[in-house]
Amino acid sequence: MDIATILGIAVGIVFVVGGILADGSIIDFWDLASIFIVLGGTLASTLVAYPLKSMLEAVKIAGKAFRSQEEDPHEIIVQINTLANIARKEGLLALEEVSEDIGEEFLKKGAMLIVDGTDPELVRNLLETELSFIEERHTKGQGIFEAMGAYAPAFGMIGTLIGLINMLKRLDDPGSVGPSMAVALITTFYGSVLANLVFIPIANKLKLKSREEILRKEIMVEGLLSIQAGENPRIIEEKLKAFLPPKARVGLQYKQQEGVEV
User: Fold this and answer.
1) Pair 120, 229: CB distance under 8 Å
2) Does residue 259 carry a pLDDT above 60?
3) pLDDT tens digit string along 145-171?
4) 246, exposed or middle or buried, with CB in 10 Å at 0-12, 13-18, 19+?
C-alpha cells in the first residue's frame, strides 16, 4: 500500500475542511446540484473522449497509485546475478529449471527465450516491443486522469455560469443575490478540489509508477542479453548498477549479503 497517496488525499481533505470550519459551516459548502454538474459533466466528457473499455481499465490502473512498488530494482539485479552465475557454471539450458521459480513474468519470459536459443537481436526486439506496449497502456491510463483533471474545473465554471444566470433572473429580490452567488461559486470549488487533489495528482503518481516499472524491465532486458552473451556475472552486475542512482547502489551490497533467492 502506498501510504503517501492515501495520506496526501487525507491531509488535503482535512486542511480544506479545516479551513472551511475555521470561518464557516461545512453545510454551506454542500450543494447537490453542483455535485451533479461537476461529477456528471466530468464523467460524460471523459466517456466522449475515451472508449468505455479504456474507462473501465482506468479504474484498475488507478489502483496502482495506491499500491507500493511491486519489486525492488536491487532484488532484480540480485536475481539476474544469480541467473548469470547459474548460466556460467551449468550453461544456459540450466536456466529452464530455475526460471520456474521466477515470479516476474517479464523476466521469466526472457529467460525462456534464452533457453530456447532465440537469436539475441530477436530477444531484444521481442522484449522491447512488449515494453513499448506496456508504456503505451500506462500512458493511456495517465491521459484519462489528466483529462478528468482538465474537465472538472471546466464544468465547475459551467456550474458557476448556470448559478449566475439563475441569480440574474432574481435580481428583483436583493436578499437572494448573496446566497445565489455563493451557490454559483461552490461548483467551481468542487471542480478545483477534485482536479487538484484527486485527478491530476493520481495522473502524476501513475507517471512515476510507470517510470519505475519501465526502469525495472529495462534492467531485466539488459541483464538477460548480457547473460545470453556469456558475460562475466560481476561485469553484468556493474553494468546493471548503472541504472541505479549512486546512493541506491550502496543498498545493493546489503541485498547481496542477505542473499535474495530467484
Assistant:
1) yes
2) no
3) 999 999 999 999 999 998 888 888 877
4) exposed
